[in-house]
């Protein structure tokens, strides 16, 4: 998977300062001989071995070497007194755990780690659970499996649209839709009645609608009713929406209700595919785009609409433990004054931004689709950039923003990794 390649490249790359990313190294500390009472009571399993250090337990299970802090091990105890299995919530008061705690006894069998603490409390961990949930285990895993695409890859995949009735009335149709959406960042529903009301029903099938300064459901025409270039007939370059929110909207829904004219095709670009190309060609550019915070701003004074929104964050956002890219914030229209870095970083950032822009604008990365009445488009606004060619005549769209948490929640309840 590309995320694993990403992590490998970043772990191996050294920047101009000669330092690796700080979270990728960890000093295990001095090794201490285990006291007699902490030695295994039975021969160690061939697939498992352990050793006590000053402040953590080093545990090798199969191919994973885990370094587990003693406080972490006490804090995550799943015994009845420490964890409520009915509510799936922690009962233990973490602040009551001695930060210098050490186990009095350690035992490991084929499947389980047993720890006895100074007060006599016993913690049991399944080795599989530890391998999945340790730092070392997590950095090997992908949070959100994806298929990166350019226009040709997406067309060859022949990703099916989902019929509206199947989407609304069956879990199978909903699951197929969500699987496509999670993998590609876009998905289509066909045979939707071209009204705002029916589009609202569609959206609420997978999420709560996120209310913003634009309302809940909105109509979208070229009447310049809002202070935004989108409310014109002009072409729009590729971008993600609401970069000026502290948390940009997760999913956007588009449904063309009417178009009496020419042009107006929708442009879609997989931002994660473009970012991977930057990582391959110039990892120092990727690192800079992932570390430098930017301000995006929306200032509006049109009619009764008065808004001044500011969002701050880097262009590329990655999970620090596995370097998996999870959000791209790219909108040249709304980027505010660039004043968040010292002068010696500015030019390097512009070079990095140019490298990403070049990839985003490659013609083979552009997927053009004509939105027509009855065909609704769902876009992952944290991943896929959208744009529009100029158009003539009267064109009306409706749509909304969805809360990302609710969409992912729906997917998980259907058994998908999200």
From TrEMBL:
Signal peptide residues on this chain, from the entry's feature table: 1-18
Alphabetical list of CDD domains matching this protein: CAS_like (cd00250)
Pathway where this protein functions: Amine and polyamine biosynthesis; carnitine biosynthesis
Every Gamma-butyrobetaine hydroxylase-like N-terminal domain range: 54-130
Gene Ontology cellular component list: mitochondrial matrix
PANTHER family according to UniProt: GAMMA-BUTYROBETAINE HYDROXYLASE-RELATED (PTHR10696), TRIMETHYLLYSINE DIOXYGENASE, MITOCHONDRIAL (PTHR10696:SF51)
Protein family per UniProt: Belongs to the gamma-BBH/TMLD family.
Protein name according to UniProt: Trimethyllysine dioxygenase, mitochondrial
Organism of provenance: Erythrocercus mccallii
């Amino acid at each position: 998977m590309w995320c694993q390649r990403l992590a490998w490249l970043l772990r191996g790359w050294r920047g101009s300062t000669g330092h690796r990313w700080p979270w990728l190294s960890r000093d295990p500390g001095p090794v201490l001989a285990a006291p007699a009472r902490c030695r295994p009571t039975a021969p160690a399993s061939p697939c498992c071995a352990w050793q006590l250090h000053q402040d953590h337990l080093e545990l090798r299970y199969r191919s994973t070497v885990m370094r587990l802090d003693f406080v972490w091990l006490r804090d995550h105890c799943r015994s009845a007194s420490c964890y409520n299995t009915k509510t799936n919530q922690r009962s233990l008061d973490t602040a009551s755990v001695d930060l210098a705690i050490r186990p009095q006894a350690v035992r490991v069998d084929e499947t389980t780690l047993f720890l006895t603490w100074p007060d006599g409390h016993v913690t049991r961990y399944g080795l599989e659970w530890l391998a999945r949930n340790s730092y070392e285990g997590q950095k090997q895993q992908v949070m959100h499996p994806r298929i990166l695409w350019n226009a040709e890859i997406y067309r060859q995949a022949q990703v099916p649209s989902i019929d509206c009735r199947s989407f609304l009335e069956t879990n199978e149709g909903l699951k197929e839709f969500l699987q496509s959406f999670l993998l590609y960042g876009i998905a289509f529903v066909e045979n939707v009645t071209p009204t705002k009301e029916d589009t609202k029903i569609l959206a609420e099938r997978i999420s709560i609608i996120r209310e913003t300064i634009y309302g809940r459901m909105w109509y979208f025409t070229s009447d310049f009713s809002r202070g935004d270039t989108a409310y014109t007939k002009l072409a729009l370059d590729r971008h993600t929406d609401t970069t000026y929110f502290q948390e940009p909207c997760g999913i956007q829904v588009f449904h063309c209700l009417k178009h009496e004219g020419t042009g107006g095709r929708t442009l879609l670009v997989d931002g994660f595919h473009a970012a991977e190309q930057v990582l391959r060609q110039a990892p120092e550019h990727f690192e800079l785009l992932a570390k430098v915070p930017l301000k995006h701003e929306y200032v509006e004074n049109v009619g009764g609409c008065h808004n001044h929104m500011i969002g701050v964050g880097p262009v590329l956002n990655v999970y620090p433990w596995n370097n998996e890219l999870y959000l791209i914030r790219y909108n040249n229209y709304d980027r505010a004054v660039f004043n968040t870095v010292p002068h010696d970083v500015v030019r390097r950032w512009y070079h990095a931004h140019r490298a990403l822009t070049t990839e985003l604008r490659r013609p083979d990365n552009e997927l053009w689709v004509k939105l027509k009445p009855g065909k609704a488009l769902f876009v992952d606004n944290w991943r896929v950039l959208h744009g529009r060619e100029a158009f003539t005549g009267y064109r009306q769209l409706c749509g909304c923003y969805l809360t990302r948490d609710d969409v992912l929640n729906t997917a998980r309840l259907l058994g998908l990794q999200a």
